[in-house]
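Aim 2, interim progress. The first record below pairs a target sequence with its C-alpha cells.
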Amino acid sequence: MSGQRHIIVGISGASGAAIGARIVERLAEQPQCAVHLVVSGAAARTLHAEVGPDSLARLRDLATHVHDVTDIGACIASGSFSAAGMIVAPCSIRTLSAIAWGQLDNLLVRAADVQLKERRRLILLVRESPLHLGHLRAMTQASEIGAIIAPPLPAFYLRPQSLDDVVEQIACRAINLLGVAGLRTNAREWDGSGDCNLRPLMK
C-alpha cells in the first residue's frame, strides 16, 4: 500500500514478550502501518514460554515483513530506509547495553542504531528489576544518544482488572511514544477527573 509508514518492532529475550506481541497486533490493525518484525533467538524461547507455542508463527503472519535477526544486510539496517521509528519490547539488558555502546552484532541492534543516527524515535521497554549501577549507566548512555527509555510499568491509576489490561496499556503507550501522526488506539487514558474513560491516545 502506497504511503504506508514503516515501523520496526524488535522483541528481545527479556520477560514480558506479551507486550511486544500486543504491539505487533495493534500496529497490524492499522492499514497505514507496515510492520517490520525482528525477533532474537532468546525472544523466540520467551514467546514460546510466556505467550504460547504458536505465538511466534502468529506474529510472523501479522507482520508485513519478517527479518532474520542474523541478516545484517536487511533493509532496516540502512539509514536510507525510511522508517517512522522502532520499538524494542521487551528490551533485555543485553540488548540495551549493545545499543548504548554500539555493539552492532545482530540486526535488532543494528536497526536500533540506525534509528538513533538518523534522529528517529527509538523506544526501549527495558525489562529488569532490581537494577544495579551498570544497568542504570547503560540506560543513561542510551538516553543521552537519543533513545527513549520506557520501562513497562503498569498504570495503576487506570485500575487494571486483568494482566491483559496491563499489557494493553503498556503496548498502546509505547505506540503513542513513537509520535507517528494518524496512529490510533482505544486504550484507557487518565482524564484528570479520577475517571478513566475510553478515548484514543492519539488523534
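The second target in this work package is listed in the same format:
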Amino acid sequence: MKFWSEFKEFAVKGNMLDMAVGIIIGAAFSKIVNSLVKFVLTPPLSFLTNGVHLESLQWILRPAKTDGSGEVVKEALIIQYGMFLQAAIDFLIIAMTIFILIKMINRIRLKSEDTEDKTVPTPKDIQLLTEIRNLMQEQTNKQSDTPSERS
C-alpha cells in the first residue's frame, strides 16, 4: 500500500507533469526542426552540389557478387558516409536552432525580471522579492545610521 501512495505522490508532483509537458513539446519541436532540415535547408544544399543528395554518397569497398541468374551470392561492402554527413549536418542545425531559441528565451526572461524596465510587466513573485529586498536595505541603512551603543 505504501508503494502505491508513494508512486501516486511521485506521478502527481509538478516536476513529473513538467517533465511530461517538456517531452511532448520536445517531440513536436523535433518535427519542426526535422522538416526545416529536410524541406528547407537540404534542397538548396542539393542544388549547390549539382543535385547530389548527401544521403546517397557512399564508398563501395566490394561490389555485390551475383550468379548467372542475377541472384546476389555475396552482399556488397559499402561505407555510407553520406548518411553520416547528413546526420552531422542535421545535428549542427538542430543544435544551432536550440541555441538560438534558448538565447531568445533567456533574453525575454532577463527582460521580464528587470524591475527597472517598465515596458515589460514584472511577474508578481519578482515584484514581491524586490519589495522585500528594498525593505531589508532600508532597515540595514537605518541601523547603520543610528549610533550603536558600546559598553
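The chain has two domains: 1-49, 53-62+74-142. This observation will shape the mutagenesis plan for the next reporting period.
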